Amino acid sequence: MFTHWACFDCRKSFAKDESDVPRKCPECAKAMTDMGAYFEPPRRLNKKRWEVMKVLADYGYWFNTKDSKIYIQNRILQAKNPRVADVIERIELEKQRKINAE
User: Fold this and answer.
1) Which class for 79: exposed (0-12), middle (13-18), buried (19 or more C-beta within 10 A)?
2) How many angstroms separate the Cα of 34 from the Cα of each of 71, 89, 97?
3) Is 87 helix (H, G, I), strand (E, B) or coil?
4) Residue 102 has pLDDT above 80, yes or no
5) Arithmetic mean of pLDDT, 21-33
6) Which helix (H) or strand (E) holds 12?
7) Where residue 42 falls among pLDDT bands split at 50, 70, 90?
8) Reduced to 3 states, what is the DSSP secondary structure of residue 78?
9) pLDDT exceeding 70 applies to what percent of the chain?
């Protein structure tokens, strides 16, 4: 099965086979992040959206399943073009909910 590997420095995504071995970007040779099969990369010029995707990756949110994609869109992003600060705030709130639920 293929997955989308994202390079946040080049703002590019490549569909490749799943692998436990980290892949390097063919453009800049930096490590790429496996964002999952359901990742829809933003347009290359949309820097703000790429920043949001990097925040998601940094906090461990990936688009591996259809359910994870729906969860991220409905609970974390909540808008078509959310601000980075709002996304971070919602991620922190989700962390608190999980801690309180335990």
Assistant:
1) exposed
2) 18, 23, 26
3) helix
4) no
5) 92
6) strand 12-17
7) very high
8) coil
9) 100
